[in-house]
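Students often ask why inverse folding is considered easier than folding. One informal answer: many sequences map to the same fold, so there is more than one right answer. In these notes we will look at a single instance of the problem. The structure comes first.
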């Protein structure tokens, strides 16, 4: 049906976009027009008149072409921007995640420096003197000034340590002074040469930082889903010429 081919080509003559997609749209339009022609022929209408009627139902090719051109531009801009925002969200998620890892690494490094510094002070000793207590206090104060997560720290000397946690009242040094705490709450421990450090470290704002990359990932997932649905919907809308 050359008249249908000419009509379809005229409609899409000035429509920009992906060539493969345009070709698919043109083919789908031909199919719908041909189906309409066949339905009209079944009703007793001659083929020539059926073709003219089918084309008339779709409307003037210039109007349709202009409408499709604007529609393609808008939809392409919308889906492109949607995809770009989704990609940016993924990038921001990766950046924030690695930043948090660096923050966590700094925290663990500071914790190790504090405990190792304390162990170095008491090494080769059995009792902590006033001078050593001042140095230990400097280590704990430095850590607390930076992170403020240390709720309890006890320094113990135990030649027969059997892997059991110590009671706070057994500590030769305790932070804060006169602290009472259940052994069940202790969540950090390290030891060397019969000296042991046990501590309770509270959760801090660092834990909430992980919400940032997760939020960006959720946003990017939702945007990519919307982008995919939009692409499918737009394509179906372009193909949906029946009933016009």
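Output (designed amino acids):
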């Amino acid at each position: 049906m050359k008249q249908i081919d000419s009509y379809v080509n005229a409609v899409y003559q000035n429509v920009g976009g992906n060539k493969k997609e345009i070709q698919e749209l043109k083919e789908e339009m031909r199919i719908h027009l041909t189906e309409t022609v066949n339905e009209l022929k079944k009703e007793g209408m001659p083929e020539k008149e059926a073709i003219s009627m089918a084309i008339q139902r779709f409307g003037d090719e210039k109007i349709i072409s202009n409408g499709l051109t604007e529609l393609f531009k808008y939809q392409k801009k919308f889906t492109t921007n949607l995809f770009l925002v989704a990609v940016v969200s993924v990038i921001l998620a990766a950046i924030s995640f690695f930043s948090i890892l660096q923050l966590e690494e700094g925290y663990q490094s500071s914790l190790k420096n504090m405990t190792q510094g304390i162990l170095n002070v008491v090494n080769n000793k059995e009792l902590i003197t006033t001078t050593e207590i001042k140095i230990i206090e400097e280590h704990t104060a430095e850590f607390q000034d930076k992170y403020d997560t240390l709720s309890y720290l006890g320094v113990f000397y135990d030649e027969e340590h059997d892997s059991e946690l110590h009671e706070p009242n057994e500590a030769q040094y305790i932070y804060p002074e006169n602290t009472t705490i259940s052994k069940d709450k202790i969540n950090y421990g390290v030891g060397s040469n019969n000296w042991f450090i046990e501590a309770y470290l509270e959760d801090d704002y660092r834990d909430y930082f992980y919400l940032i990359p997760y939020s960006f990932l959720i946003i990017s997932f939702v945007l990519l889903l919307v982008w995919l649905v939009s692409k499918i919907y737009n394509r179906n809308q372009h193909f949906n010429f029946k009933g016009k």
